[in-house]
Amino acid sequence: MLEMRQVEGFLFSALSLSSSSLAVISLLLKKLTAAVLLADVACHAKHVPSRYIRPPSSRPNIADVDASGSAIIPLVDLRDLSGPGRAAVVKAIGSACRGHGFFQVANHGIPDDVITSMLRVAREFFRQPESERLKMYSDDPSRTTRLSTSFNTRTEEVASWRDFLRLHCFPLEDYVHEWPANPPAFREAVAEYAMNARRLALSLLGAISESLGLETDWLAAALGKQAQHMAVNYYPPCPEPELTYGLPGHKDPNAITLLLQDGVSGLQVLGQNGRWIAVDPVPGNLVLSNDRYKSVLHRAVVNNSTERISVPTFYCPSPEAVIKPAPALVDEEHPAAYREFTYGEYYDKFWDRGLQRESCLDMFRVANL
Ligand code: OGA
Ligand code: NI
Question: What residues does the Fe2OG dioxygenase domain cover (predicted)?
Fold first, then answer.
């Protein structure tokens, strides 16, 4: 309401100006009344609106992508993690982290019905009327629960073909009351999935610590109080997928990401040979190993027939945690590769700069200071 009144005031004072200023005003009015979320633009669009179109040099080139294959993307079976086979699983995880910074996991222990319910309420949420979805809208990255679109509409020049709901999930009781109340099953299904994802993230962090020769709980302890964020990504069908991205290439800003996808493909990771690989996976993504383990560059592309939902769980340090390498990983031959920083400092930078190919972590690299 307030916004409309301000614009009307502007309109009146501008009426005495030239007709070209009138054109500007009508554009302004149009912008205020246009859809805020992509889903409500995409359902009418025959072409990709200009603000989503990437310059020709940075388009996805969808035809030139390698198909997924277990030969390329490691698949780690976690069944033996708690048994005599643990050392072999830890070794497989270590080599996946060193090589790709990314792997799929089988026998991860999250029950099928928990996953199915998570994806069901995610889909139901995004299929609600615009007025219901907009109750959750905010473009302020510091909000702990919010629905938004693209990546950071405050700072970016080209938008991405995505709406997303972001939720903080740990400790659950601090946040559940902020989450969407509709669909009615949402809070319970998401809480159940979040608890399971936390268990898996901690178990993987334990194995990853061991694979670096550290105590099992080293990484979990380095995260401080620990935080867990979830994104529920919604990629509507796109009339011209070759012009835009669901998400352009980026590295996630956290310790480890578990990615849950519905059956629609769209995720791609950059392979060691410099080519993009299409995958249907659960990736791990690491930043705490003094550069021994890699954070994989990845992106999401869209398609012209089917909506797609993905649910990354970002397991991260608490804002005050100080990020620095494990002392056991630093010696004269391997000096600290990054300056120390708090996770809060890093996280703010990540959201401010927008998604860029270069990792945000590079800004903290000792050689670049
Ligand atoms: C992300 C992300 C990939 C996908 O949300 O950070 O990389 O497939 N998503 O949705
Ligand atoms: Ni990501």
Answer: 226-317
